[in-house]
Amino acid sequence: MTSLATYRRSVLHAAHLPVYDFLAPSFIQIPRASRVRYISTTRKLAAIPDQSSNTPNPGQSASSNAPSLKKPLTQAQREFLSQAFRVNQAGELAATLIYIAQTPPIVASHPHLRPLMKHMYDQEAGHLETFNTLLAKHRVRPTAMYPIWTIAASALGWGTAIMGREAAMACTEAVETEIGGHYNEQLRVLVDMVEQMEESGEEVGNELKELMSTIRRIRDEELEHLDHAVENEAKQAQPYELLTGIIKAGCRGAIWISERV
Ligand SMILES: [Fe+2]
Ligand SMILES: [Fe+2]
């Protein structure tokens, strides 16, 4: 009896938790569904049978000005977006720290690279701000590896810059190759998600469309950094294959861990 009473108390407590986020677990959303924040997916009324009628007519079409009902994201979609926001924030944090560490030694030995280093850093800082905002807005926790990535990224930036301009650019080439591919994979999942929504008669909300366009823009800027690195003789780094191989493997490992931890 004691455990049943404890269970009932916990359910009642959960029902009054102030959770309004579309990424919150569905068992918490159910009692407060009217106050949950959605990522603006809606289902057209025409797709829903008339519950008040004793003889439902699935083929009956609703009028064009019928009100829409919102539909929350599925558990799998929420988990995907939470992981994506978390790993993207970690990646952008690392990118800004790499450029912060690389810039003084590189600019000291190659002053003409100052505008390029600043340009790439400014874009990374913008990306980080974007994902900081998304994490805060949707109450997604950052990766627990945040302090470790901070040290690792600073060490990587400083170490490659000390090796020279080519090694610093090879670092950028390797990182952007992995990150560009990572953003591409996220876009592929989002495109599939949107196609499924459209096929099932749901309208795709502006928030999801804006997210896709933001990730597409950031992906393109990462690939622009990759081009700058190659133009600045990244492939002349010694030992190029070993250096870029280690950095790419490190990026893949960091992405895998940051999605989960
Ligand atoms: Fe970035
Ligand atoms: Fe980048």
Automatic annotation (TrEMBL):
Cofactor mode of binding and number, as noted: Binds 2 iron ions per subunit.
Q: What does this protein do?
A: Catalyzes the hydroxylation of 2-polyprenyl-3-methyl-6-methoxy-1,4-benzoquinol (DMQH2) during ubiquinone biosynthesis. Has also a structural role in the COQ enzyme complex, stabilizing other COQ polypeptides.
The gene designation is: COQ7
Q: Which cofactor does it need?
A: Fe cation
Instruction: State any GO CC term.
Output: extrinsic component of mitochondrial inner membrane
The record lists the lineage as: Eukaryota, Fungi, Dikarya, Ascomycota, Pezizomycotina
Q: What is this protein called?
A: 5-demethoxyubiquinone hydroxylase, mitochondrial
**Which positions are annotated as binding Fe cation 2?**
E124, E176, E222, H225
Q: Which CDD domains match?
A: DMQH
Q: How does it assemble?
A: Component of a multi-subunit COQ enzyme complex, composed of at least COQ3, COQ4, COQ5, COQ6, COQ7 and COQ9.
Domain of life per record:
Eukaryota
